[in-house]
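Field reference: "sequence" (input) and "structure" (output). Example, galactinol--sucrose galactosyltransferase:
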Amino acid sequence: MILGFNQILPTKKKILETCSIINRTFSCPVYLRIDYNDQQVYLSFEKPTHNTRSPHPSINLLETNPQASVIFRYTVKVRVHDNKNKLQLYVLLECRSVNRCIENLRQFWPQFVLLNDRRSSYFIFHELLYSNETNSTDCFDDRTNQTIQCSSFYNMCSASSETERTCTSHSNEFIYSYNKAYRPHRLTNESVYYTLSCQVDNCTDNESIANTADNIQVFHSYKNIITLHWNNVTLEYMIIRDNQIWFESGPFFIHFNQTYYSSSSNQESISMLPLYLIEQYETTGIDVVLGSFNKLTLRWSSTLQTDISIWETSFKIFQEQPIILFDQYFPLDLDGMSMGNDIDTFKHVSTAFPRFKVSFNQTDQYVIDHLGHFTFLEFWDLNMRGIGLKNLFNGGLYSGNPLLLYNLTKLDSNIILSPLNNFMTNFQTRSPSLNYHFSCGLHGRIRQIEQSFSLTTILLASQSNQGINKITNQWGKLLLQYYGKQHINQHENFHEDFYISKLGYYTDTGGYYWYNTESNLTYEQTFINLKQYHLKQQIPVQYYELDSYWYYKQDDYTGEYGGIKLYEPRPDVFPNGIESLQREILKTPLIVHHKYYSIDNLYQDKYKFLNGSVGNASLPLEQRFFNKIFSQIKQWGVEILIQDWLAFVYELLPDASYDVHTAREYHLHLAEGAKQAGIKLIYCMPVNPEILETLENTQVHYIRISDDYSTNINQWNIGRPSMITWALGVIPFKDTFWTTSIQPESTYGNFTEPNVLLNGLVALMSLGGVAISDKIGNTNSTVVNRLCRTDGILFRPERPATAMDSTFLGDNGPKGEMWHTYASDV
């Protein structure tokens, strides 16, 4: 932390107080630069690491004290002396161990003074001029020019002015200062003042003083809500919220040329080479969405013999909002970054910034027990919450992104962290190779980086009265603004969207007719009978979904698995085609299923595909191919396409995640093709990066955020994941459901649905599709009538029902689920 004093400073104003707010953590290093009389003095409260390079020599106040580890925390105050414009440095140190604090202090320094008897952990250290064995000391009195004895423990030999020493009583605060002329490497108790170099003649100008004081603190804090402390000696930083450390940094880390580099390699669990800080500098700027910021940039090199940076990291602290951005920039092409090829590689990152120490056991000092977390912990995680950072996810493909931490005793005190760009490569994990620290960075499958690539992580802190729901919505609003995307509820004719306003029918997993037809009938004949049943029983279904059973799959497989070989209706399924089904039989909008392609697909002669080196998946790479597919299904009467099996693009096609472009471009191609044809998208089985990627995709209107309906009776519990999707401007979807408990001769064995009304209610309150999937003759009209009018118009709320803040309180919260939404009078 650098504090420049070649500026106008407020009289008797505390400029810097660091580490006085630390709870249950190890020593907090402080590094001050004091400018006086055109000279610079660097004061360090902790010995610099071996790979720390400072442009100036430092005065190491604890350098000669091997027992420095007993220090628990420091409080540092820098003040201007009355009417003299002089500098005073106050130091308060707290011992680590309460029970043996006195013994430790005597080992640390032979002399000490107790500051407060009620709290034995607080001590002011000072170096008295008398020995530990006596209550008196000799003092050379400058006024009498002779040696006298200070006989009481409460007296000491100290400077009573700038030049004279005599016996004086100590006050409630002891002043420590760097005295260049007298014993420069040791603490003194002399009141040594240094004249400040002022930039204006009148150093007491109140307006100038106030402005300067604000400028000094702006890099570190936003209205005392969120504070960043940077230590340029140890190269460590802390995030402080509500006078407590929420994050304490781990070392900067990068992996390239198949070699690990760390800014503090001695702290790492595996062997790493040093990463050298070759330059740091501060700038200011304006982000058109987020506002004005101060920026601290750090340039890193893998060698000391060069000024060429291989990696740049920067903090952006915003002045108008409680936001910190952590930027990674790659000024050169880098190779050899991959940590492996299998699915567990996503639990690693090849760059780590920010990186925070997080415990995963009961004794780790970085645990903050009163914090809860709200994030995805695993695939199809519907609970999404836990207590204590030690229970945080291990990371990987299915966890994190975003991570919200909240105070269990004060729910409007929270912080949310997420990627801000390059979502398909910017992961959150607790990498085993990085001491299980919480790390944000490039996922471990990426093999190389191109020059000028960047990653950004955003940290947003809540303001007053912003609970978990409000900060989540604020985070989503900021991201939508950043990408210039409109929230779904701002779309013209939003309430007229048939998918959210009308009753539908599904044949996907869990539905009665999923890979199952009426006995000895084709799907076309089954749909004819189904439509007649709905009309006869006045079940007002307004759209139908066709799942993956209708198109050709790899090796001509007719089951659910296998990629698309040919995206055309099979004649044994729909003999007259899908267009005929829509126009002549169903006469409603259609929703169709789509997923990844197979390596034997029939389009590769005309279009470029990426065939996986393992597995059998293939990914189309050309925009014109997607244009063809969407134009084709539009002619069939399709209004919505379900892009399914999204997670399996990572699992079955690792080649798509070897570079930083392919996975993202796949989604952009989908979006553009759908946009040109006027077709909306439902994302199904997405991993968390793909949920965030919808920020760049205007056509994703809905996301299925639950597991398959099937036999999973708890997949209705979507109150927490709905918070994320709705904040990002996308409608959550629960999936289909049965309206009767028993569906005879279903393909799900003896499964019965015990929660018919609950599933219907959740589907209705989700704002996503309300799609039944019963067998012909088994739809409960009473249930349907509770969901919609006789014309199929649903009884809808204005927004999805989401979990209330109180459900995040652990044992102090409600025992069941509590969600909230509202409806308009219109």
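Residues 32 and 221 are 17 Å apart (CA to CA).
The radius of gyration is 33 Å.
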